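User: Hi! I have a protein structure encoded as tokens and I'd like to know what sequence might fold into it. I'm fairly new to this, so please keep things simple.
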């Protein structure tokens, strides 16, 4: 094992360890092809990002109190009776911190809204579930991008 220094996301110098591992050849080829398609030049960069996502995914699904930052993106029909009021009430009552939101009027019926949120995993899940279940909400996607203690 060898070590070196690397600047982490937080700007601090972080010790880097070198590992070696064995993989089925087909899996590696498949990984490399995927990484190339996504625009990675270095395999190690792609592996690092895949590991971070693996850890984030696990925290998100196993620790309901993990503090997460992410977005809810949704398209809804603003002409559906009282939908806008319901969506606003749900957000106010959720306990989730709404950090910012962006609203686009797509056409005469549809609105696209992107909401930046921060809160406990269980609150984010429950917020997005109560919004998607409302009549008039056509698509909704919850994306988790960061956890406080990665
Ligand atoms: Ni609109």
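Assistant: Happy to help. Inverse folding works backwards from shape to sequence: for each of the 150 positions I chose a residue that suits the local structure. Here it is:
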């Amino acid at each position: 094992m060898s070590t070196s220094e690397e600047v982490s996301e937080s700007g601090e110098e972080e010790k880097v360890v070198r590992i070696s591992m064995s993989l089925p050849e087909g899996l590696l080829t498949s990984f490399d092809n995927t990484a190339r398609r996504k625009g990675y030049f270095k395999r190690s960069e792609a592996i690092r990002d895949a590991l971070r996502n693996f850890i984030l995914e696990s925290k998100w699904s196993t620790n309901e109190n993990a503090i997460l930052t992410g977005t809810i993106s949704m398209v809804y029909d603003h002409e559906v009776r009282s939908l806008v009021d319901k969506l606003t009430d749900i957000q106010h009552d959720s306990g989730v911190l709404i950090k910012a939101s962006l609203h686009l009027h797509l056409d005469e019926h549809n609105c696209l809204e992107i909401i930046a949120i921060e809160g406990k995993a269980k609150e984010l899940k429950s917020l997005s579930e109560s919004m998607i279940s409302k009549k008039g909400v056509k698509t909704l996607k919850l994306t988790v991008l960061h956890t406080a203690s990665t």
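A useful reference point when you look it over: Residues 73 and 114 are 4 Å apart (CA to CA). Feel free to ask if any position seems puzzling.
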